[in-house]
Amino acid sequence: MPHPSDSRKFLTLPAVQPGADVSPAALLCALVALADEILALRSNPFPIHRRSAREAIRQVGAILEFLADVRGRGSALPASAAVGFSELHVALQKLRHLLQDCARPGARLWVLMRSELVSNEFQMLVRSISTALDVLPLASIDAAPELKELVRLVREQAWKATVGTEPADAMAMRSMWSILGQFKNGIAPNRIDLRWILDHLRIRSWNYCSEEIAFLEELFLASLDDDDDEEEAALLGSLMAFMVYCRVVLFDAVDDEKSSEKQSKARARAVSHVNLDHLRCPISLELMTDPVTIATGQTYDRASISKWLKSGCLTCPVTGEKLANNSLVPNSAIRNLMEQFCHETKVTIPEPNGKPKRDLTRTATPLSAAAAGATRMVAAFLVHKLAVGTNQEKNKAAHEIRKLSKSNIFNRACLVEAGSVPWLLYHFSSSDPSIQDNAVAALMSLSKHPSGGKAIVEAGGLGLIVDVIRVALRVEAQQNAAAILFYLSSDEVYRTEIGRMAEAIPTLVELLREGTYRGRKNAIVTLYGLLPCPDNLRKILAAGAIPALASILSSDRADLVNDAVAVLAKIAEGHDGTTAILESSAVPHLVAFLRSSTSRSGRENCVSALLSLCNNGGAKVVSLLEQIPVLMPSLYSLVTEGSPQAGKKARSLLNHIHHLHDQEDLIMMGVIDAQ
């Protein structure tokens, strides 16, 4: 699949027309390189349009023999050869794109359903190759006679060839349409028919199905920019649902977990020897969010090198070499290494500039009636497996729900409607850590849906969630359970119910003290969500949240500190909260944070907390702040450089301090009496 920043859409075949001033010799070298690239594709299986792909590659192989012989002789080429070489160059560029798309892992089902388009493209390209060879002045070109004869034979065969959809492909496509029709009518298709289609496409594992789903989803996201192509979006949705159904119903095991675990350990070993400077763009010196490699083999961040090239610089910034082309090849190895390094060293990973965020609201309704029918049948199947399956089947069902509900609102609604929530809660007490982990993660996604939150509370699930936070078999389950409480805390009724549970808030505060980074983060944001309920505030203070939050203020994780400051600012709005904060060691840490932080929201929350402390604590607090010399420059900086809201709060705090200072001067002068 082309990189998201590339301009070529799948199954479109752009080509660059060689300029009129390009010599035949230069064209010859380019043609040899292009033909070599096409021949390198012959090791691909080509499950769809196999005969057309093999025949096209065979023709290119014969043409390459001729071209290589001509280049090897080194004789002068006639000027008239430029026309034929140019036409051949354009045709081979398009053929390379088409063959790459047909061989692309994950694209098999889509290529099948676009068989008519693909067949037409093969037909036109074969004719284009024949036309290019027809205008080639073979008599004037120095080459072996038998190779010239081979070119003539290829030319004749290409012109006579009739390319169409192969019978087996056509049958598979008809079967696909029939199955989509069954989905639309709520009918479960015959598993033999499903197996036959997958075998034809050589999709033989859970992982292959996932690969197809990921590709179709990528095409769908790209199609969102084209509002006029609703028919294509509907077909993509139907095909995604078909592959999900096959993955869930036909395959008993998730076959990517062990390999993923091995890869993770290998990456962890690799990053232990990585120098962070090697992951920085040589141009911007920043971490590469979207690394790409250019013709010289050097890697840069896409945004930086694109700007360099657009400015007219056609050399490599590091080596100074002139670039043979402007191609930018995504460097997934560097990207993966950078992500792993940042994860291991707790460095925040910046997102690529301009990277589109997925709009989940578009997934609230199914893309087609077939997709809706298939999804409902999948949900019912998974809930049945959760209820009566073997441990392996239960684990796989929870894993599938986890994946399906992660980023699709309609999937969540179907899974809740099918009754998945009570069974997922039931498996919270499983002695199998994998089942528990998958069940908790699945419920976390379902809790984001209004009907999911309601089902959790009605099933009495709050106590089970708190128990998992306390005694989870894996730390991931503990973290995800805290996240469930966070999503539920956005509802006024649910946050009250959570607060009424004796163990809920103390458990969150304990996680705040002793948890992992992600666990502490989830605990902080959940406590913030519970604060609007006055009874919860008292319980949060009683559980000792203030000392735990104060200790986080000295953490080296900026995002944790920002969240802790936001909670302290909310707590400081009341007199009880102010008293608790003043009794802790939080105030000096808040001032230090205000001085060092670069977060606009973090600094605003910090000055809000300090202002509330002054408003509620009176002159004693103002006097305390006046004695901290580094505070005043930070406040003046906010007044001049901060947001309007932050500047207003900083100005109010400065007024408090100046007013106290003026009073002290008047007392010293005897104008007023000391209180």
Automatic annotation (TrEMBL):
GO terms for cellular component: cytoplasm; nucleus. ARM repeats lie at residues 419-461, 544-586. PANTHER family: U BOX DOMAIN-CONTAINING (PTHR23315), U-BOX DOMAIN-CONTAINING PROTEIN 19 (PTHR23315:SF307). Keywords: Repeat, Transferase, Ubl conjugation pathway. It is an enzyme of class 2 (transferase). Residues 274-348 form the U-box domain. This is RING-type E3 ubiquitin transferase. GO terms for molecular function: ubiquitin protein ligase activity. It catalyses: S-ubiquitinyl-[E2 ubiquitin-conjugating enzyme]-L-cysteine + [acceptor protein]-L-lysine = [E2 ubiquitin-conjugating enzyme]-L-cysteine + N(6)-ubiquitinyl-[acceptor protein]-L-lysine. Pathway: Protein modification; protein ubiquitination. Pfam families: ARM_PUB, PUB10_N, U-box. One of its GO terms (biological process) is regulation of seed germination. Its EC number is 2.3.2.27.
